[in-house]
Write a structure and sequence with these properties.
Layout (H helix, E strand, L loop, with lengths): L4 H49 L4 E8 L10 E6 L4 E6 L5 E7 L2 E9 L5 E9 L4 E7 L8 E5 L12 E5 L1 H6 L17 E4 L8 E4 L8 E4 L2 E2 L20 E9 L12 E6 L15
Parallel strand pairs: 1-7, 6-8, 12-15
Antiparallel strand pairs: 1-4, 2-3, 2-5, 5-6, 9-14, 10-11, 12-13, 14-15
Length: about 290
Amino acid sequence: MKVDFSARFQGVSSVPNYSLRLQRFAATQGLLARRCLKVLCLFWTLLPCAIHGQVVTASLQGTAQDSSGAAIAAASVKAVNTSTNVVTSTVTDTQGRFVFAALAPGGPYTVTVNAPGFKTEVRSGILLAVDQTADVTIVLQVGSATQRVEVNGDVTQLETSTSSVGQVIGNRSIVDLPLNQRNVYSLMFLVPGVTGSVSVQYNSLNFSVNGGRPGSTNILVDGIPASPPLIVPIGGFAVFPSVDAVQEFKVELSSYPAQFGRSGSGIVDVILKSGTNQLHGSAYEFL
């Protein structure tokens, strides 16, 4: 009888090869799992930034300088929302510039600037509108930091740092002007370039901004898109906020920043009221 030992040895040698294949397969799957985990962690890290970019806020920037106009670097700057006591702090750069890029609209804000060898400057009564980029120049006087110079006054409403064109409908107009059906969107027609009509129905987004296609306006409520796509018209209202709940809103007409997209006919930024340090409320009745 003839025995084929080569076949036996070939079968025995194939066992280590099979084990090696399993090890390589496990290593490949482990590498793939680690890569997926890294991508998932990166996604969750960037997700808050993406959400934060959609929030409608206001900005306050300025320059700290001495009486001769020279920039004051490394000066401490603090912005306090006196309605909520929320404090935001920063320091000036080598050019004396400071920026508060994301402040809640409203206020009023108090800005305090202090630097060694200079008196402490306090600016109060600063009101920030929705999507406003306010600029203020603060001149520090030579003296002790324990000495305070207080100035009460709002900042200029002329924005020189942005090309955006729009108009803010403030809370006084929202509260004082008569509104049929208490529809706050009716006040959009106070803005030049806005034409059409609205009602209290979700599919009544039939107005145009600067000649754009009716129904293509993007509406944001506290930064959240509130104009779902429809067929006729191509957009609608997802929410009708109460008049008493609206702080103010701004109609962006043209040249608005790149953070606002998905619009063929302007942007409407609605800001709701927030809590404050004082108890407040309102009531109404139909007659």
